[in-house]
UniProtKB/TrEMBL annotation:
NodD regulates the expression of the nodABCFE genes which encode other nodulation proteins. NodD is also a negative regulator of its own expression. Binds flavonoids as inducers. Keywords: DNA-binding, Transcription, Transcription regulation. This is LysR family glycine cleavage system transcriptional activator. The keyword Transcription applies. Pfam families: HTH_1, LysR_substrate. The keyword DNA-binding applies. Belongs to the LysR transcriptional regulatory family. Residues 5-62 form the HTH lysR-type domain. CDD domains: PBP2_GcdR_TrpI_HvrB_AmpR_like. Coiled coil: none annotated. InterPro entries: LysR-type_TF_proteobact-type, LysR_HTH_N, LysR_subst-bd, WH-like_DNA-bd_sf, WH_DNA-bd_sf.
Amino acid sequence: MGRLPPLAGLRAFEAAARHLSFKRAADELHVTPTAISHQVRQLEQTVGVRLFERRTRQVLLTAEGQVLLPVLRDGFDAFARVLEGLSRKRRRAVVTLSATPAFTAKWLVPRLARLRKSRADIDLTLLATLEVADLNSTADLALRYGSGPYPDLIAEPLTVDRFAPVVSPRLGIRRPSDLRSATLLHFDWHRRDARNPTWRRWLKTAGINDVDARAGVRFSDETHAIQATVAGAGVALHSLVLVADELSQGTLVAPFGPELEGFSLHLVRSRDRPLTEPVEAVRHWLKSEFDAAR
């Protein structure tokens, strides 16, 4: 690449040529008109051609100046765009939030727009997994569903989940006795625990003995079980937190109880990592969403 003239001279010429005024160029670049004139003259000496016709209180571009102006203008515009992009990239923050696939799909995703509206400078990464995310390397925050405790983490309780029979209103199931002719939908819990809200546990709590708790359709993915319920495939025991939107919209109903208490949902983070402002903003958003849902 050939040797270029000093950048200050090129910048002075571009501003003066754009304004056709040394004074306005000087105002833009925060220097004196004399400095602009000196830098332009040095540039002319370097390239060996006159770039301006200097008249009383006016300057005009020569033919050579007219050739040079668009090249410099486009170049400086390109510099500005690239530098602005780099600056935005440097200012943006990435926060990774881990949650189960069902909670991510049914609760987090519908509420993302409010976070984006208030904090468009934060790029949120949703890590949807049933595995326990490492909060020292993989994720900044996690939503943990269980009984706890979490001694190595900072844990904040958000809500206690509750489960009840949920069904499409199209099926006309209105009372517990209707379960005798209904298809039961089951979700296979990731972990074995006697407190899991299963049909066996619900039927025992409701005092119903003539319904087979094992019959029906089983799902390994909770989101699929919810979709099947909305489609009218049967009646399921669902988290009232996860199907809150469907219940409010009337696409699902919870026609009768009793409700079973599930586990607690905690927002957790590492004790060993500082709470940065972007992570705190996501934490505040999550807590405010749960407060609004109460």
